[in-house]
Amino acid sequence: MSRGRSARRPSRGVAAVAMAAFSVCVPSAHAVSRAWDNPSGGDWHLPGNWAGAEVPGIADVAVFGLNAAYQVSSGTNIAVEGILVSGTNHLLLNLGSNTLQSTGLFESKVGHSPFDDARLTVSNGAFLAPNLSIGQGGSAVGALVIDAGGVGPAIWGELATHSALQKGLAGVVIDGAIRDSWDIIKLKFPACARLIMPNAGEPRGFGEIGVPIRIGNTRVETGDWLLGDD
C-alpha cells in the first residue's frame, strides 16, 4: 500500500472539453464571425473553406451553420474567441493531436436556436473552452460526443456529473472511460461510456510504499485482504 499527496491531471484534450461545458458565460461584444463554407469538410487553415476566404483568428468566432455532417481537420494549434455550432450541423473536429483554444470572451455554443439539433465531436486533441454551453434555445438540443481516443484514464466522474446536473445537461456520451459509476447511477444521470475504471489520471508527487495507511477508520497494512462491492 502507499500513501502521500498526489495531483491528478485529466487525460489529454477531451476532459477539458467535458468540463468546459459547465463554466460561467461572458459573451463578447467585439467578436467577428467567420463562417465555415464547405459542406464537404476540409482543412481548418485553408482560406477557401471559409466565407470571405478569412480563416478565424484569436479575435474571431468560428461559425458552423451549413446544416450538414462533415469533418474539419487541423495540423496545428488553433486559437479563436469562440465557436458556434448551430442548426443541424454534425461537426467532427479532428485536431490531429493539437489544441483548439477558445479565449472564452465569447460564449461558445453547441445548439443555439429553438429546434436546433447541433452535434460536436472532438477527436484526437484538446478543445479548451472556458465558456461552452450546450442547447441554448427553448427547444434546442445540444449533443456533445466526447472521443477520448481510447480507454486510458477516466475523463468523467461524480464531480462532473454534479456540475452537469446543475447546468441542466441531459446526459453525456463518451468514447472512453468514466469513473464513480455507482455515484452517477444514484444521481440518475445518463452517462454512456466504453469502460468503467477508477484511474482519473497520472499520479504525480512523492509517496511511501509498504507502510500502513488508513481508509476512514480502518487501518490497512501490506498483506491485508480488501473486499469491495462495486
Describe, in plain words, how this protein is organized in 3D.
The protein is mostly beta strands. 10% of the residues lie in helices and 35% in strands. The strands form five sheets. Strands 3, 5, 6, 8, 10, 12, 13 and 15 form an eight-stranded parallel sheet that branches. A five-stranded parallel sheet has the order 2-4-7-9-11, with no helix packed on it. It has a two-stranded antiparallel ribbon with strand order 1-17. Strand 18 (213-215) and strand 19 (218-220) form a beta hairpin. It is elongated. Mean pLDDT is 76; it is low at 1-29.
Give short descriptive properties of this protein.
single chain; 230 residues; mainly beta; eight-stranded parallel beta sheet; five-stranded parallel beta sheet; 19 strands; elongated; disordered N terminus
